[in-house]
Amino acid sequence: MNRREIDHCLLCNAPLTIRMDWKRLFVNRFPQAICQECEGKFERYRHEGNEEVDSLYYYNEAMQDYLHRYKFMRDVLLAKVFAGEIHRHLKNRKELIVPIPMHPEKWKERTFSHVDELLRQARIPFVHVLEKTTTEAQAGKSREERMKTPQLFVLREDAQVEGKDLLLVDDIYTTGTTIRHATQVLMEGGAKSVKAFTLIRAKGGQEAIKASPLMF
């Protein structure tokens, strides 16, 4: 990979100041994708105890703009923004990495799978074992409406999950409906354990995130 392939911030287009050192010269590192000013706008998630769902950032204004551009505006290059952080958090996980899937109709509409691309850019191997059964979006629903959502997934016919430890990966955690539904299907399919990782965690009171239906 060309370490100078990105020379302007992918978010604000400001020139990037590449800090060269011996580690950057001799270690295969992820290229810098955003400037320090943009990076500082993202709020790191503060973990509380032994949580089953691991997250990296809170959902704030900067993250809302990022998701809009990445998913709704289909700016697939933005998958590089958090590649290094995702890689650092998942590279040593022993579980089988399982992305939350998109419905085929949504995939055609968006032209790429946003969760798959985040993992691909982070160089994290993954396998699909779930299928999404509905194109209905969760964005904009109240907490009560999300909690009443019918099962969103089924196990793929070729899935082999029995006796395995699995790590679900999604872009954002709000009420936990998506993770809960996926976990139920996997456990019923014989999985030994299921945990989850998300790039973003909504703060309290953000359950009904306002967004275009195309975003989620």
CATH fold description of the largest domain: Rossmann fold
* Distance N to C terminus: 31 Å
Number of structurally distinct domains: 2
Based on CA atoms alone, the radius of gyration comes out at 18 Å
Number of strands: 6
Low-confidence stretches: 207-216
- Order of strands across the biggest sheet? 1-6-5-2
Protein name: ComF family protein
Family: Belongs to the ComF/GntX family.
Domain Phosphoribosyltransferase: 115-212
Q: Describe it for me?
A:
This is ComF family protein. The chain has about 220 residues and is α/β, with parallel strands linked by helices. It folds into two domains: about 1-40, no CATH class; about 45-200, Rossmann fold (3-Layer(aba) Sandwich). The protein is built from eight helices and six strands. It has helices at about 20-25, 35-40, 60-70, 85-90, 105-110, 115-120, 145, 175-190, and strands at about 55-60, 95-100, 130, 155, 165-175, 195-200. The strands form two sheets. A four-stranded parallel beta sheet has the order 1-6-5-2, with helices on both faces. Strands 3-4 form a two-stranded antiparallel sheet. β5, α8 (about 175-190) and β6 (about 195-200) form a beta-alpha-beta unit. The two termini are about 30 Å apart.
